[in-house]
């Protein structure tokens, strides 16, 4: 946020609460919320200050206008309410374990959450950041993430967890 020199309030959700509330499975996201708490613009996945479209939406919104129509949201499967709650619980447990210095146990919980929600890139990134912090700080290695995702997808297809067109396969 400092590098972007933002002059408006921003939220960096280190606890993953927004992913649970809004059900998104990818990052980065952009939500423009007015003073009444109404979401005026939402872009799930791919939001970037390098995108002219995203910058224009933010600028229109900051000038008091409508930011424009939100881009299509992510598609794919959805989880049942009980499955969503189980994934959220495993994510919270993992964060608690990580905060206690029990990183291996945290990763185990996050992997269990990922097995229930294999297309959830937010969970994957949580695992990757815990196991490969050098790929996230001081600079995010986007190419490594792309290669890591491709490698994990191949492993999931070989293990029968996912099919070539996505996850999950009906069980």
Going across the major beta sheet, what is the strand order? 1-2
Please count the beta strands (DSSP E, at least 2 residues each). Answer: 2
Relative helix content: 40-55%
Largest sheet: 2 strands, antiparallel
Measure the end-to-end span. 43 Å
Describe the structure.
With 171 residues, the chain is mostly helical. The chain folds into two domains: 1-75, no CATH class; 81-158. It has helices at residues 17-22, 52-62, 81-99, 103-116, 121-131, 142-158, and strands at residues 29-33, 39-44. The protein has a two-stranded antiparallel ribbon. Helix 3 packs antiparallel against helix 4 and helix 4 packs antiparallel against helix 5.
Question: Notable features of this structure?
Answer:
mainly alpha, two-stranded antiparallel ribbon, 6% strand
Task: Map the helices and strands.
Layout: H1 17-22, E1 29-33, E2 39-44, H2 52-62, H3 81-99, H4 103-116, H5 121-131, H6 142-158
Antiparallel strand pairs: 1-2
Helix pairs in contact: 3-4, 4-5
Characterize this entry briefly.
This protein has 171 residues and is mainly alpha-helical.
């Amino acid at each position: 946020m400092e590098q972007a020199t933002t002059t408006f309030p921003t939220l960096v959700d280190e606890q993953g609460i927004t992913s649970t509330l809004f059900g998104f499975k990818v990052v980065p996201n952009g939500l423009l919320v007015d003073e009444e708490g109404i979401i005026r613009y939402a872009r799930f996945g791919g939001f970037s200050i390098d995108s002219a479209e995203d910058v224009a939406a933010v600028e229109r919104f900051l000038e008091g206008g409508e930011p424009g129509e939100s881009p299509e949201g992510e598609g794919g499967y959805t989880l049942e309410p009980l499955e969503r709650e189980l994934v959220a619980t495993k994510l919270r447990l993992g964060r608690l374990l990580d905060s206690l210095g029990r990183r291996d146990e945290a990763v185990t919980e996050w992997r269990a959450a990922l097995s229930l929600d294999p297309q959830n890139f937010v969970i994957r990134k949580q695992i990757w950041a815990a196991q490969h912090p050098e790929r996230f700080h001081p600079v995010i290695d986007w190419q490594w993430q792309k290669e890591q995702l491709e490698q994990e997808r191949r492993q999931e297809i070989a293990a029968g967890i996912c099919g070539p067109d996505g996850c999950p396969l009906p069980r």
